[in-house]
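Q: My collaborator sent me two sequences in one message, no labels, and asked for predicted structures for both. Can we handle them in order? The first one she listed is below.
A: Yes, handling them in the order given. First sequence, followed by its structure tokens:
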Amino acid sequence: MHGLAYGFSWPDVQDSRNSRGFPCGSRKLGSPARAADMYVGSYHRACRKAAETLQPERLLILSARYGLLDLDDVIEPYDTPHGAAGATTARRLLEQATERGIVRLDPVVALGGARHTALVRTVWPHARTPLAGTRGMGEQMARLAAMRDGQAPHRG
């Protein structure tokens, strides 16, 4: 079974062949870099650690500017939040998922804030969202730490 996870996979769908991805972040390097190195903020690092704990075959980042990124994609720094001019759109995300052959993946797990998960759900409406219902960054970081430590989060 293959699945695009945006940071986390439920225990019943964990599979080393699953792709994993996670959100970009507002803190970035100031020069062109690999996507794996561009995002330096604590939220992105927490998502990445949670994803890496699952030992996926492939990790993807959902960038507000560039859409789906592989870790080795070299990108320019940017300051484009979701919904702003120049931000990736649901249409672009669908095109990218189609090009990558991942548009029909199931299960899909979206890890990130409401804007990221809403965008993911435009392509994968069945996506699970384990951070849904959190009341702020502190609670999200606690759930990410629990996932990193192998504890199942609240199902969203």
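Q: And the one she listed second?
A: Here it is, processed independently of the first:
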Amino acid sequence: MPIRTNRGRAAVYRRLWGWPLRSPRHLVTTIVGVVVLVTTISVVIPNAIKPRPNGGTAGTTSTVTTGSGGGNQVGVLPTVTSTPLPTKAPSPTPAPTSAPVNANAQLRADMWVDAFSRFEPGKTTKEQWLAGLEEHTSDEMFPRLQSVDPANVPAVIDQAVKPIKSFTDSAEFEAKLEDGRLIVTVAKLPEGWVVTDWTKVG
């Protein structure tokens, strides 16, 4: 039956407070219970309010802060090295434009072939042979002629030098040899039309 009077409640409280003092066993039990209660409270409460490992307290939402560190950190995008785009390929060199044979180119080819075939063993020296070719030959090709033994130069059997290709700034001519053909290239340089190449064919 519930206690409805203050006097009854006071009697109950006196019995509760007086219980530990009734015997040594009650006192020891009460002390042990108090120690256990205090120990439990001292362990549970700090753990309940201890911050979480991610830096936030219980019940709060942690945020990831991105820094300027390396690309392995959480929330940091890896550094991407940009590769330069290939440059545009140069435009192909336009093909030379065909044109009628230039009169100066034809004359230069005729004079060069004539000087080339004028070597006579025992009568003409190599220096004389080269002197006759030098004014008709480009500076780049003349050293090549200096390495040639004129005694081995095939004789030209047909002095008629015929054009086989002609462009605005160069032309190719052909002369017949005793054992093939002589192809001569004439080009227009700052100093004028000169022979820039020659080849024995056949």
